[in-house]
Amino acid sequence: MNISPVQPSRSSIQDWCYEHREALLVIIPALILIIYFLYPFLDGLILGTVFAYVGRPIRDRIKSHRRLGALLATVVIIIPIFLVLGLGLIEIANQIIWLVKHQESITLYLQSLASMRPVSPALHELLTGGINNVAGIAAPIAASIPVMELGRSVILGTINFTISIPVCYFFLLDGERLKRSAAVILSSEDADAYARYTTRIDRILSGIFVGSIYTSIVGSLLSTLVFYVFDIPRPLALASLVFISGMVPVLTAWVVILPVTAFRYLTMGPNDALILFITASALIYIPSEIFIRPYLVSARSSMHPLLVMLSFFGGALVAGIGGFFLAPAVMGILVGIYQERREEMERSGEA
Known about the structure:
mainly alpha, 12 helices
């Protein structure tokens, strides 16, 4: 009996690529060209994808009406983020333009505030020196920003935010189909591994985004109310900072509450500053950070907080708003792959 030699078998993905190599020669350059043309709208695509991920728990509660669930989840996620983050960033842009035109008057005003309150000479010198240093650094930076470039950034940001709305809706509507279609070309064994990896990655990204964004939305909306009641200048701009800081572990809302309390102390005195601090802590920090974040995040995300924080900061510095959300997602995917691979090695006795 002749025994034919055993040929080394390729994986199903390699088989598929080999069988469709002619089509791939056309598809890959076309994809590169599409990415090139869509690059200006990358922020909108990333934001829409993240918003869809965050809106998925809301959509899942209305399983009987898929389109209604996707629409409701889109509205619930997009509207508060637009009201707080979008309008707040517009306020910040207007403030930057105003800062460029009134550099000297701002420095004099801040110095006069520091002189109005009875503090020790050492603390007074520290405050005035810090104000001078901050003004000396911030003013040239603000002055170096071209007004036309700033206007272009605002317009492009508005367009990207608008694009994120239909992207969010259609990902909520058809995202599960896209996920299942990725497993069509896989064998049963590969499909099982694919399911394990995607489940692990899904749990990590859920811990990063779902809990963080829900916490940030609640905290920013509550902060808008508090800042309006206490007549704090630029409440929407401050609320947008609360939203951003709430996304990043370790920072939370304290990075906004403490400076606002210091400003309240300089302008209104210690009693008003103490009332503001207690109210802001009770209504902004405690509900979002003590109750909402632990309840939503729980132990789903096994990423170290330092990795999450560096991903948010690094992504924002390199690629702006899109990078702010994309970098933690990429880091979460890599961590999920590493954790799942490590457990596979432990089960097989390789580790």
